[in-house]
Amino acid sequence: MQGYWHFPALGIVSSFLSIMFGYEWIIVLFFFWIIWLYIRHRLGKLSLIVSLAITLFFFFYLPDIEQPVPKLTHDKEQQIFGKITRPVQKTPKKIDFTVTDDVTGNDFFVTYFGDERDGLHLKYGASCRIAGTPETPDAARNPGQFDYRNYLASQGIFYQVIINDSEAITCTGSSFMQNIYQLRSDMIQYVQQHLSPQTAAWLNALVLGDDTEIDEETKELFQRWNLTHLLAISGLHVGLVVGLLYMLLVKYAGATREKAQWTVIVFLPIYALLAGGEASVLRASAMVLLFMATGKWGWKLSVVDVLSIVFMLLICFDPYIVYQVGFQLSFCVTFGLLLSKDWLLQTNSSFFTVLKISFISQMMILPLQVEYFFTFQPLSILLNTVIVPYFTLFVIPLMFTMLLLAPVAGFINPLLDMLFVTIHDLFKIVIQMTDEIAYDPMVIGSFPLLATVLYYVCFVVFMAKAESKKQKEAFAWGCSLVLLVMLIIIKPYLSPDGKVTMLDIGQGDAFVVELPYRKGVILIDAGAPVNFGGKKPSNNVYKQIIRPYLRSQGIAKIDSIFLSHADTDHMGSFPYILADMPVKHVVVSDYYTFANPVLEALKNNEVNIVRTGLGDKLTIEDGVFHVLSPNKDSQSKNENSLVLYTELGGKTWLFTGDIGRETEKEIIRLYPDLTIDVLKVAHHGSRTSTGSDFLQEIHPVYGLISAGVNNMYSHPHRDVLQSLQFEEVNIYRTDKHGAVQYDFRKGEGTFSTYLP
Question: Which residue spans traverse the membrane (predicted)?
Fold first, then answer.
C-alpha cells in the first residue's frame, strides 16, 4: 500500500459526498474509477481491495446530519444524568458545556447563564445531574443563514438545554484530562493578567487557540481577506513547537536525538489539547507523531500517505469531524501543497515561493470558501504573500517567546509587549487602509457539486502542466478555471427564472425580488430590531440574514430599494446595506423623512432618491410598480406607507407596508375593480389592518405574513387569521415557515417554504 493510501482517503471523500448530497452515483463512480485503474495495472490488487473495503465501511459508518433528529420521549423538564465530555467554555455572560447521557448516549449542549462564581463544579469528566428541558437547537430560517442546528450536529450534538438557575446543575468529580484543560485556562488567565489586552488577545489566539478576546472587527477583517487561517493554530505553530523543543533539548540541554524525539512524542498531544484541539492542530500534530513512529519502526511512507492515514484515523475516532469546516479546509490546503511540492521547489526566490504557496492555498479551498461564505477575494492571494511572512517570522515566534519567558524572565516581556503593540498597530493601519481602498470581492453565490468536481479536475491538470513546465497547456487549463468560475457568476444573467423571497427577519419586513436574467434586484423594505437599551437599529439582521441571503444568490448590487415607511422594522437595515453594497435607487413616499446621517450617506454614495405617490408608475429595469397609496399626509407613518401593485410570475401582488383599515378602504374606493393574487398582509397581521371588506373586494389567493416567532404583539392576530381563512386564502407565515419563496418562469410559478 506504500504510495497508495490516498486512494482509500479519496474513497472516504466519495462516501461523505454521497451521504451529504444524497448522490449514491458518486461512490459508484469512484468504484468504477479504481477498478479501471486496476485493470490498467496502475493499482495493485491489495490497494484495490483495501480501498473498496474502507470506502464501503465509511459509507455506512459516517453519520448523516441532515436526517431528522430522533425525538425525545417528552419535551418537558427532566433529569439528565451524565458526564461532561468536552472542555467547558466560559465567558463573562454564560458557561457552555456538553453532557453525555449515561443511559441513551445522547449529547446535550448545556448553556448556563451565570458565571463560575456560582460555585458550580463544572469540570471535564465530572458526573452531573441536570434538571432542564431538552430542545432541538434552532435551525436556519433563511437561505444562506448560519445554521446553528447543523453546526452542533457537525459535533454530534442534537439537543440543547438552557438553564438560568444554578440549583438545576449538580456536578461532582473530574477526569485526568481536566488537569490539562485547567492548565490551559490558567495559562490564558495568566497571560491576560500580565500582558496588555492587545498582546494577550493575540498570544492566547496564536499559541493557546483561544481567540475570544480578538475583537469582532478584526475577525471580520481577516475573514474578508481570507486571513482567518492565521488566527487558527496550524502546522506552522506545531513546527515551531517541535523546532523549539529540539533546539532546547539537543543544543542547550545536551539530550540525544532519541530522547528529544520521545519528548516530542509525549509533549505534542498535550500541546494539541492546550491549543484547543482544533482540526488543524490535530492534523499537524498527528502527522508529526506518525512520521516519528514510522521512522522508528522502519516504515517508508510518503508525506501524502501520512496525511491520508491521519485523515482516516481522525474520522475513525470522530466521524462527525468530517462535517467541520476547519477540518475540510485544513486537509484540502495541506493536500494541495503536498501535491505541488515539486512546483514549489522550482522557484529560487523566497517571495515567489510564498506567492505560490498563497496561490495554491487559496485556489485549493476556493469552492469550499464560496460554498460556505459565497465570496472570493482574488487580491487575498497577494495580501497573504505579505501578511503570512509577517506572522511567520515575527508575530508567532514572538508570542511563543513571550510565553516561555513569562515564568523565568518575565521582566523582559513589557519591552517585547511594547514592541509588538507598536509594530502591530502599524500592521493594522496598513491592512485597514488596504481594506478601505481595495476590498471588492467576487460575489459568486453557491458552488454546485458538479462545478466543484470540474474545478478540481482542471486545477490538478493545471498544476501538473505547470510543474512539467508546459506553460501553454498550463495557461489553457488556468483559463478553463477562470471560465468555470465566471460561468457560475453569470449563470443568473442567463437564467429565465425569477424569484420573490419574503425573508424571515423576525418582527419586520424584508422582501427580495430577483427579476429573470438578473435584469433587476429589488428590495421592498429592509427591517431591523433596535439595539437593546438604545434607539439605533441593530446590524444583526443585515449581517446574519439579509447579506448572507443576497450573497448566496450571487447578488453584489441592488437596483432599487422601496422603503414603505420610516419605522425601524421596515428600514432599520437600510443604512447597513447602503454602507456595504452599491444601490442605484431608493424609492420612498412624498412624506418619508430621512435622518441626516442617512441623507449624507445617500449623497456620498450617489444614490438616486425617488419620491412617489398615488397614481405613479415606476419602471425598475423590467419590473413595473404602480403606487396605490399614499395620496395625502395622514400624519401617521403607518398610514403613509407606500402601497405597491405589481405583476410577477403571472400573479398580481400587493405590498401594503403597515397601512390600517382606513387606508384599505381608501384603496378600495379609488380602485373598485382591484383584484390580487398575492397579498402582503399589512402590519404583520395586526388586527388594525386586513379588514374583511378589504379581503372580500380584492379576493387574494395567497397571504404573506411577516411576523416574529412568539412576538410580544401576538401577531398575526387571531381575527386576521380567521378573516383570511374565511376567504380561503392560502397563508404563508415567517414565524411558522421561515423564509417564503415564489420561484417563477414566465407566467408560472410555485411557492415554497424554507422550513418543512
Answer: 12-39, 46-62, 230-250, 262-291, 297-315, 351-374, 386-412, 442-462, 474-494
